[in-house]
Amino acid sequence: MRTLLCVLLSLFFVSLGIASEKIYIDIDDLSYADETFHIHEGENIWIQSNVIHSEPRGFYIYESDIVKSHEGAYEKKWRCPYCNSHWPIGTPCQNPNCPSKYK
Ligand SMILES: [Zn+2]
C-alpha cells in the first residue's frame, strides 16, 4: 500500500512538472522587436514568443509559447548585428536603412 502511494505521488509530481515546465530566460538573451519577443539560443540563433511571463525569480516562457512553423519546428531567426533586426535563417538583412548597406 505504501509503495502504491509512493508511485501515485511521484506520478502526480511528474505530470505537474510537465504541465508547468518553464523555460527561464536571461534578460541579456531577450529582445523585443516587431511586436514579438526574441530569445537568444546562442550562436546568433533566436527563437520567438509572443508572450513573456515574469515572477520574482525572473522571466520565463512555456514551451507552448514558442512560435513554431507549420511543421512544428521552432521558427529560428538570426539577428543583424548592424540594425538588430531579426530575419529567417539564410535570409540576408532586408532592412533598407541597415548601416551594413552603406559600408
Ligand atoms: Zn541589418
Give a short summary of the structure:
With 103 residues, the chain is α+β, with helices and mostly antiparallel strands. It is 17% helix and 34% strand.
Name some characteristics of this structure.
single chain, 103 residues, alpha+beta, five-stranded antiparallel β-sheet, three-stranded antiparallel β-sheet, 8 strands, binds zinc ion
How would you explain this protein's 3D organization?
The structure is a single chain. The chain has 103 residues and is α+β, with helices and mostly antiparallel strands. It has a domain at 20-82. The chain contains 1 helix and 8 strands. It has one helix spanning 2-19; strands spanning 22-25, 30-33, 36-42, 45-49, 53-55, 58-62, 76-79, 86-88. A 5-stranded antiparallel beta sheet has the order 2-3-4-7-8, with no helix packed on it. A 3-stranded antiparallel beta sheet has the order 1-6-5, with no helix packed on it. The radius of gyration is 19 Å and the shape is elongated. The model has no long low-confidence stretch (mean pLDDT 87). The structure holds zinc ion. The site of zinc ion has 8 residues, from loops. Zinc ion binds at residues 80, 82-83, 85, 93, 95, 98, 100.
